[in-house]
Specification:
Elements: E1 4-8, H1 29-45, E2 49-53, E3 69-71, E4 76-78, H2 90-97, E5 103-105, E6 117-120, E7 123-128, H3 134-145, E8 150-155, E9 166-168, E10 173-176, E11 190-193, E12 205-207, E13 210-214, H4 218-225, E14 230-234, H5 237-241, E15 251-253
Parallel strand pairs: 1-2, 4-5, 7-8, 10-11, 13-14
Antiparallel strand pairs: 1-15, 3-4, 6-7, 9-10, 12-13
Length: 255
């Protein structure tokens, strides 16, 4: 069960961050702040203590804090983000996490984004993407393997990160996009496949006994309603415009 979450307030120039979704329109900072506030309140409503970092104007994507660390009960792994424009975001996050967990680091030439890392029980799936390379996965596997975790590397053929298309929604159930549904490495799990046009909502966030999902995706909502968990819908329009999702906006961990 998660007890804490770390978030960062989106900076005023967040729209200058990296994105491939310009077709969705220009991001609105005021609306982004309101949506981020609602996200934080949802986490608090689920019993989490939320640690809020200030905006970081030098890094417009820095509110996507999930990419700069992977936090387990035993260790916080500080990643080496794969996008040069984002490498440096981890500098201010590491000392905060260090108050709660021992730290380990991914070092160059390895690089990794936390958005490529999914934990299911004691098994990590790590996407090999433009943001995560094989050396980063090797280092990560060595770090977490010392604590009894296994690691499966999975090529990401479509989408920014592995968790753009695959997320754990409780038990042995994964919510996946059609592009990931045929992966052999996911055999043995119950797969809920997003309907056409609702792929964005595959990035649904499991927090303790609740699921937080983007509003506006009725097919996905119908799928997850059958899981018997509390479901919270949040408007994610401004985050979606910047290629982000629900998991991206926080680092969840137990203390």
């Amino acid at each position: 069960m998660f007890s804490h979450a770390l978030v960062r307030v989106p900076c005023e120039n967040f729209a200058s961050g990296l994105t491939t979704s310009s077709r969705l329109g220009a991001p609105d900072h005021g609306l982004m702040l309101r949506q981020h506030d609602a996200y934080v309140e949802a986490l608090r409503g689920l019993g989490l203590t939320v640690i809020t970092l200030p905006p970081e104007d030098a890094f417009p994507d820095a509110h996507f804090v999930e990419d700069v660390a992977v936090v387990t009960p035993e260790v916080a792994v500080i990643t080496n983000p794969g996008a040069p424009a984002r490498n440096g975001e981890q500098t201010s996050v590491a000392p905060v996490l260090g108050r709660y967990k021992p730290l380990a680091r991914i070092e160059s030439p390895g690089f990794m984004d936390g958005g490529d890392v999914l934990l299911v029980d004691r098994r990590f799936f790590v996407g090999l993407s433009e943001r995560t390379n094989a050396e980063g996965v090797r280092q990560f596997a060595e770090i977490v393997g010392a604590h009894g975790y296994t690691v499966d590397a999975v090529p990401v053929e479509k989408g920014l990160h592995f968790k753009s298309g695959v997320n754990h929604v409780g038990g042995k159930t994964l919510l996946v996009t059609p592009d990931f549904a045929g992966l052999d490495v996911l055999a043995g799990y119950d797969l809920l496949v997003t309907p056409q046009g609702e792929e964005y909502a595959a990035n649904t966030l499991l927090v303790n006994d609740a699921l937080i999902t983007p509003t506006g995706f009725p097919g996905v909502r119908a799928l997850i309603d059958g899981l018997g968990l509390r479901v919270i819908e949040l408007d994610m329009s401004e985050t979606q415009k910047m290629d982000g999702g629900l998991t991206c906006l926080s680092l969840r961990f137990a203390v």
